[in-house]
Amino acid sequence: MADPAFHFFHLPFSIRHFLTSPSLLLLSGIEGFQRFSEQPKYTEVNPAEDTLLTCKVIDKRGTCSWQKDNKPVGIYTKKYEWASRMPTSDNGNVLHLDLHPPAVQLGGDCSLWIRSATLDFDDGLWECQVTASDFTTQDALTSQPVRLVVRVAPQRPRLEYEAVHVPPGHNITADAGALATVKCISHYGNPPATLKWFLGDQEISPIHPQMNATEPDNPRTWSATSVVQVSAMRERHGDILRCAAYHESYTAKSVVVEARLDVKCECWDNDMQNSDTASCILNAGH
């Protein structure tokens, strides 16, 4: 009986190519066409801590590799290590670190440990890649780029009113009936801080979504800016306007900066003299 392989390799190339195409392999249910079962996802890590970028492949036959910011990443002991390891000895020492995964890696696990994360070396866009099973199947894999964020605590937020810095606890002075436009800025965070506004105990909305931008002198960190408008009504005189910056790297997870609303009104004293002072609110009968 003739060897089936003999007949196959004597078929025209176009037919052989069709029979080994990934589409036909999938449609026919043939095992061996590798595909992702789990791709890496957005991850945050504190400086000097370890983190795991997960990447798992079904029916893996190719070789795993990783890229960061479109450049290949090597495997280095105590820095970048495969999550899939060979068994350890009785004293706990690793007998062999799987630096070059075999043709069929246990469980198809291409996950990567990043040890002692640093902003300069590890923060960026990461991709998991697997070479094709063989040159005919064309089933090489590349995951979607995902961001690994090495956290940096932002500076304390600051308030600005009419382009002037408002020190914590100072006044924001506005004429009664006017709109006071106040800006809150947080610098040098990674990721950027999340900013929220409160007037008294009530959360209020900014005039547009928070704006984030990389810092010109340190592009791996971010500034966050939020702007709110408060109607300077007489009954709001003395209310406290707060901007809260939220970030996982803050010890208390948030830092608050606040200022007092000073609403000025035009009123008349008992001698019918014009008076431009906030204290007249208290005598105006609201």
TrEMBL record:
Compartments, as annotated in UniProt: Membrane
A cellular-component GO term for this protein: cell-cell junction
Keyword set includes Lipoprotein: no
Annotated keywords: Disulfide bond, Glycoprotein, Immunoglobulin domain, Membrane
Cleaved signal peptide residues: none
Gene3D superfamilies given in the database record: Immunoglobulins
Database matches in SMART domains: IG (SM00409)
Superkingdom of origin: Eukaryota
Record-level Gene Ontology MF annotations: cell adhesion molecule binding
Domain Ig-like: 22-142, 157-262
PROSITE patterns: IG_LIKE
UniProt GO BP: cell-cell adhesion
Membrane-traversing stretches: none
Main location: membrane
One Pfam assignment: C2-set_2
Keyword Phosphoprotein tagged: no
Membrane topology, as annotated: Single-pass type I membrane protein
InterPro entries for this protein: CD80_C2-set, Cell_adhesion_signaling, Ig-like_dom, Ig-like_dom_sf, Ig-like_fold, Ig_sub
Protein name (Swiss-Prot/TrEMBL): GG17448
Species whose genome carries this gene: Drosophila erecta (Fruit fly)
